[in-house]
């Protein structure tokens, strides 16, 4: 139970006090009425004695009487109602007592933490204490107990009477007649010989004091000094001044005792219950408590709520518009106002008069009442003792004779229904009970308990249920109140008494009193669970007010337990609120529901939470608290409700009605609406014009739009492209203040900095709405709410100015009249939501001024769409207009959580999110890009030509146009090959993209008529050679660098357009490829807040397989002197010749309608190598490939002529073209050279730089010998096998499409880097790496890679020069000597020592002699030193003995560096000779002359 002001002992003592009656003469009443009081009311504030009294018990022991209070009441002879229940008037007045006391405002509520619940509620319940006190005082007197019977009677006569003694005699006779005549059943008197105390009331302001004293002396003579008293009052003669304040102790007692005075003396008839006053109203006890069954029948809800056990007392319509609205204070306020109008109390009394009254009561009690009680206790004790010998012994003997000893106490179920049994007044059982009550009233609890216990046994033996229950009740209370607690509190006594009252006697009033007493005792002992169980058992349907109060107290018991039971507290608070509502106590009902809501809120109990909120909303609306009602209904609609669609529709209509009534009263800013839900974090903001769709053949750039989903990886990619473009525009350096452009802001973008928008460019805000209900919603006139502050941004950038430095007053669209001149707002006329639908709305703003814009929220009209059931019920009736309310919702976006500092990590703090606060800047250029003839599918390596159109749609000129891409090898704008190539290329391409002319995308030259393979024949000059400089910007192979787009004059004026050709090449790998372009441009006007702007475009290209190229290279030798002489004229070194084998395979599976491929040309590009000639044996066969066919081409490559080192030739590449058809493509011009530089995987500058550094070694002569000084020998050996030769294979494909034949062109690239190693045009699949075991020891440093044997065996290249046929007359001369020249070529870039061994040793099958043997004449071994790349001849002589065919390739050649390698140095510092590769067989035919 809740905490009480009084302790349980004080509460019980004040519940049972001595009763004193008052009989006043008319003159005495006139004296007291001067103070707006009667005599009983005059004494009431002073009835508690401050002094301690004493009595002696029958054993002559002194018993103290502490803190005694007496009850003084006027004599009322009106018959009392039945004791089984309260009368309607009593119920109504009890309801008024409860409703008059509400929780005090401003008082700190009690906060209890139970688990994860923090509950705030009132620790005390003064309305319950007031109800309990009024209930106990209103209990009628009963025959089975004497506690509320009158012990004494005050006879009051005024001193102004002519003969006061006669008046006393009349009052005494009147009291005797009322008590003993038998005509009156009320009031009841304790004993026949009632104490009569005579009071002479003297009005000091008017009466004669001497006469009063004389009369009082006469009274002493007649009634004794202990039986009379002279009370002087009304000492004040003048009205109370403003500066003099006399306390008014009567006001608090008069309201409490209003129930007694009205019920006992003048009980009014119940007012007629009509339909008008049966509407729910606060404290309408007549309609809610008189007939609970009728009230239950009237308590109806809509059909959707009838199944709920906690249904409200609402009219059948279920709408709040039909509810009666309570007046601000109810009928209690009217009664309080009437009481206040009567004036104050005690106006004629002074503080001395207060003391006189207090002294009178103390004198009466100590000298009259207590001695009278003590005397009666002794008399009753003597009577009981004298009677005990005869009557009790005879009674006991009879029981022993017939019953056989002491009868056990029978349970209530065994007792008969003898509640109507009445004992005669002189019955011994009643005398014992009377004595017990007297002892209890004077606080002699030990003797009282003994008497109650004795009486209890007698009553149970007689099966007198009512008497037995009363004895059990008071015995339990007496046992509890005994000092020192000699025995435990017998709670089972109370349980038995309550059960007897309720079930056996059908007396709920006594049962309630017993429960109230027992609950307080159990609470004081900490037995809250037992107290709650007891209180819950006392709830019933006969009294909603009592049930509500007891359920509330049970809830407090649950929360005050050692382990608080929070859910039980909340559940019983709900039950109490429901019963309060049925009892008409709307404010108390609202309080209970609000306290229970603390437990159910956000705990997953959605249905219970909805019911509580709905009830709070209705109760608040009834009590004229519309703000609370709106808030409660808001929670119903915003939570994830599990209600049915019909119920949710009813909730929505209720809310709209309340909301509309609230908004009608307040005409301020638009109120907040809870529906639909807005996901503020999902809000996206787009700055700029929306993308235009394709126009005819034009395809617009995709750019950024709200239709695209945000991808973090894509955002990083676009940021990198923008950095490349910015760095290209700023000489390769990204400015420190660079910030990537963000056209579309969302929850994943960087929103910490203020976004920049451009004036006269739209701002589109995408707001995500969600309908949480199962019914449809209708929104109309949807628009954005904004605030704009004009600012001067003409000065250079100095950061964003603070808001207080703005150059204008804020302008809002809800109050400003010229808002359209500042910002134009788009309004969506209608926006519908289906049940549980999530929908986005895109609202547009068009700023017309420069300044700071703040987007605050959205405003709209909300209406409910009638459900099918409601619409079906409304058929045949006049359709009512749907409820439409206008409101708004704020867009409040919380930034990301801060986690940089220690304070941020230990607390929860969030940064700013500026996406809804853009800064409107001055005009900027705006460009649109269109693509013409842009393909969607290409063959791998296919070359095609498209066009790009750039349009400046703004009023500001743009410059610095650049493009960056993730696939720079995919496109080119040209620029390689010089002016001549550009002019020739332009002449061979159509001037307009709409032309249907079919032509080549390459720069082609027609070959002379005749043999197309003219370069294959001996004597024909080699193919032409072109020198091209390495690209500077955008053409570095494998690197994504922004390319500057050439514009006429470098500027694109407002409204102008520029159309440029764009060459495209299909990716080398098949599949779908995403190509991203980023166009960068700046404003021609400097000093703006926005430094540049970008435009994005992404396309998807489907690449199909075409050709696969595999190339290898191996060293070649020149066997004849003719070739040597011709090559020497060309300046080539014969020892550097290479054979290049190119295998081309058609890997296209007839995809895209491809019929066949033609290899039309093979070109090379390198700094040191070029293709010299084609030595394909099939000279007359066209290189045509159908599906899965393969062709093998063989070419001879030679080193280029060394160029003089100048600034112009330092970065030159040599292009050589070998065409296989009737026309030759100039590979050194656009687009062939562009795609070569973009697509080759290696960096030519770096690669060729390394090779070039080793091609011109720093050599010197020391003592006639060449030495190497250019680095380690290992690098020299690697360089011997390195080959940086790029092969470009150009092809044509014949495609049949729509019964038309098309010719496609393309090129493939192969880079040869190592001699003898295959190179492919298509990327090869990498083999899966084997699993590597974990190593827990640190790895050793990697060993130095030593040259392999294969690399060291290719240092020296040898050739034998000899006559193919030699005739000798063997008949005349036996020995035939033939001169042979051995040519040795040093392929290394270091000095090499060569050993030639001429001894015959067969080392391979190739060296096996064909016929006979021969021998070499002269030395068998020769040693030579060859300088880097030196060619040295060695004359030899071969001797033959017979004619035949001989193989001269028998010399073995060994070579070693003059400088040892690192490994050789570590092993001893001596270079090791390595056998060189054997030369090809050299056959000579020796014939014999006749």
TrEMBL record:
Residues 791-800 have a biased composition (Polar residues). One of its GO terms (cellular component) is TRAPPIII protein complex. InterPro entries: Ig_TPPC8_1st (IPR058541), Ig_TPPC8_2nd (IPR058538), Ig_TPPC8_3rd (IPR058540), Ig_TPPC8_C (IPR057651), TPR-like_helical_dom_sf (IPR011990), TRAPP_III_complex_Trs85 (IPR024420). Residues 1355-1456 form the TPPC8 C-terminal Ig-like domain. SUPFAM superfamilies: TPR-like. Pfam families: Ig_TPPC8_1st, Ig_TPPC8_2nd, Ig_TPPC8_3rd, Ig_TPPC8_C, TRAPPC-Trs85. Residues 707-939 form the TPPC8 first Ig-like domain. Residues 940-1095 form the TPPC8 second Ig-like domain. Residues 889-916 have a biased composition (Basic and acidic residues). Residues 281-311, 791-820, 884-916 are annotated as: Disordered. This is Trafficking protein particle complex subunit 8. It comes from Gadus morhua (Atlantic cod).
